[in-house]
Each structure stands twice: as structure tokens, then as C-alpha cells.
Amino acid sequence: MEKKYFIETFGCQMNVHDSEKIAGMLRDLGYVEGKTKSEADIIVFNTCCIRETAETKIMAKIGDTKALKRANPNLLVVVCGCMTQQKGMAELLKKRFPFLSLVIGTHNLEEMEEYIKEHNKKFRAVVWDNEKAIREDIKMYRTSDDNAWVNIMYGCNNFCTYCIVPYVRGRERSRKIEDIAQEVENLAKENKYKMVTLLGQNVNSYGNDFKDGTNFVTLLKRLCEIKGNFKISFMSSHPKDFSFELIDFIASHQDKMSINLHLPVQSGSDEILKRMNRRYTSAHYKELVDYIYKKIPNATLSTDIIVGFPGETEKDFEDTLDLVKYCKFASIFGFVYSKRQGTPASTFENQVSAKVKKERITRLFELEHSLQKETLKNYVGKTYDATIVKGDKGDELAKTHFNKLIRIDAGNYEIGREVSVLVEKLDNDLLYGKVVG
Ligand code: SAH
Ligand code: SF4
Ligand code: F3S
User: Fold this and answer.
1) What is the pLDDT of residues 396-405, one digit of tens each?
2) Closest C-alpha to 45, from 32, 64, 67
3) Whose alpha carbon is nearest atom 7 of ligand 3?
4) What is the pTM of this model?
């Protein structure tokens, strides 16, 4: 009988894509995809530790597999991803979950195939301290329908004071332009993906490690030469490195470049931005936003915001609300600040109480909601890329890449298909449109 795998993924797109590599390795070993954990011969938890809530949830899920292991002693339970890379975590996992088979760090994830082959029923933790050369020979098993994730770089050098990513993902390493171009060319030949999303913690610093003047725009220029029926998008960007040159490039290559831009601002207060070590001001951020809307009037912007960073006063928070009013974001990913061990901000004084954090996140979402009508009005008369999704009533809707639902004439489109939709009207907070391509 065929052996089955089940991968549960937490965290960002980087992890979603890593899971495609894990699936590739497991298939290489002869496993096939299982539908549930209980039918699996190997369960892999690809973890995230960006906030405490993520970690708590994952710990509970790992704990739940104890019963499955008891029922099937041959079951392999593997934990990998960002959580495992924290100091002392492998030992802690072993202590809490003695039934685990393997714990694998982020720097040696791509060796998973070997560890599974060598596994002899004894617990084993392999977490390398440092990053290694980038491997180009991993076969991946892509799982997202019309979108293909492509890593352009790994790691992060920014050390925002709240963030654990640089500690668990290592320093920035860029993939070579030709390796990336080769991957995108192969995807274009498959003619299956309408979107190629370039991934990095800060894609705008792509190429800095080559020290030869290569930058993110150099890469985009090369990728835009590739013929095919797909668009290019990217995430995430850092406002300190998001250049006017990049905005000009996107503006003049809209046939190839997605114009839904994710630009995390984190806070609207200069004092907080300084203590977050973000290295830009709210004025600079607004200047970028103005220039984006000027050069690309159809552009939609999304952002990440942290509320309740240590020392955040009511005034600081109001500065964030003011910035939100100014920027006309299509969507906001709002987070309550979470203390992460080993990061500078976890030792800062004046930690904000849970009560105030909760109240501020509620106010942020209320503001977003109250601005929605104006934002939605802006979409009428414009055409956007969207994916066909199933609505609550089983009908088909078009969901834009900035997560807005548009009602269309249902009945003709497969779920998951990428389309272009012209927004025709706004009625009772609902958008209506028609598929034009
Ligand atoms: N490299 C990307 C993504 C980082 S993680 C970037 O810089 O945009 C995604 C988001 O999680 C961040 O943008 C931030 O808003 C949030 N985040 C990171 N650390 C956090 C913490 N300690 N508490 C709450 N939110 C956090
Ligand atoms: Fe974290 Fe900042 Fe790096 Fe993003 S840029 S991963 S928020 S340290
Ligand atoms: Fe989480 Fe790691 Fe991404 S900590 S947000 S999965 S880089």
C-alpha cells in the first residue's frame, strides 16, 4: 500500500512555499498526499513563531497527534519551520512531546529527505545554527492553483526590534538572477500559472549581497522579458528600500507587473518607527504612497500594522490612525504586538497592557471598516485581476488580489480561475462587475 503524507503549514507565504518543497521531497521518497492526519504515515508540522498566539496554537496541534501515534506506532511526526530554530526549542519539544520523530531547523530543511531515509525510530533533532549555500535542485510540488511562488531570496538583515524572523531565518541570501529566470521560464512554458509571486522578507534589498550594483529592478527587467500569459507580483516590501525607480518600473510595465502592492508600514508614529528600527519616517511613507497613486492610479495598497508596541502612547496610536486615513489602503493586516524572546523590544520598558492593545486593534479595524465605503467607491469603473471563488450560497464570485469580492454573472466560471473583472457599480456596500478577460 502507498504511504501517505500530511503537511500542516502555519505562517507566511514563505512557509507555504517551503511546504511545496517538503511535499516534493516526500513524493520523491514514494509518499502520496493524504487527506487527513489519521490516514497519514508521516505528519509534518511546518511551523511559525512570529507571534505567541501562533506558537500556542501549533503546540496544541502537535499535542493532538499523540493519540494517532499511539494507534499507529510507525507514524512519523516531524516538526520543522521557524519555531524549531529558536534556542532551546528542540529540547523543549522533545520534553513535551516524547513521541516526536524528527525536529528539523530552517537552515537544513532541504535535507529532510535524508533524515527521513536514515530515521531509525529514535527521536532526532537536527537544527543547524547557520545558513548554507542555496540548493537549486529541490523538486517542488506546487499546490496553489493559479499562482506560483518563487523564492528570490532568503533571510533578513533588518532586525526590526519586535521581529524574530532574522533570528530564525538567518541573513539575506539572494538567488542568482539566471536561476530565478530559469524557474520562471519553466513556469511560463507550463502555461498554468497566471501569477508568479516573488518571495523574500524584503524583496527590495534583492541583490545587495552580490555587491555589483544588481538590484530588484535588475531582476524584474530580466523577468519581464520572459514571454507568457502571466503577471509578476512580489512580497514583502520594506518602505526604506522601496525605490521610486521600482514604482516607475511597475508603472511602465503594467502588462506584466501586478499593481497590488503590499507595503507594511507598522506604525504612523515616527518615534515608534524609530524604536522599531524601521529606518523611515511616516512622511517618507506618505511620499511613496503619493508617488504610487500618481504613477499608477489603479494601484491598490495593502499594509501590516502593529498596535501596542512598547511605549506606544495614545498620541502615537492616533498618528497611526491618521496615516491609515491618508493612505486609502485596500486592506490592512493588523496585529497586536507580541513579545518574542531574544528580540530587543521584548526587554523595552512600558510594555502596553493587553487591555489597551485589544482596545486599539478594535479601533483600528473600526476605522478600516468606516473607510471601506470610500475605498470601495474608488474601484468602480476600474478593471482588476481576480480569482473565481465560491460564495456562501454556492454561487461564484470574483475575489480580487486585494481580497475584495465582486459579484459577477455566475454559472460560467471554474473555481480557482484567474480573470479580469471590470467593476461596474457599488450597491449597499457590495461590488458588482463583469468578467472581461
Ligand atoms: N518581512 C515581512 C514580513 C514579516 S512578518 C515584512 O517585513 O513585511 C509579517 C508581519 O507580522 C510584519 O509585517 C509585522 O506586522 C507582524 N509582526 C512581526 N513581528 C511581530 C510581533 N512580535 N508582534 C506582532 N506582530 C508582528
Ligand atoms: Fe521582520 Fe523587519 Fe525583517 Fe520584516 S523586515 S522580516 S518585519 S525584521
Ligand atoms: Fe512565521 Fe517564519 Fe514566516 S516566523 S511569518 S513562518 S518567516
Assistant:
1) 899 987 788 9
2) 64
3) 165
4) 0.94
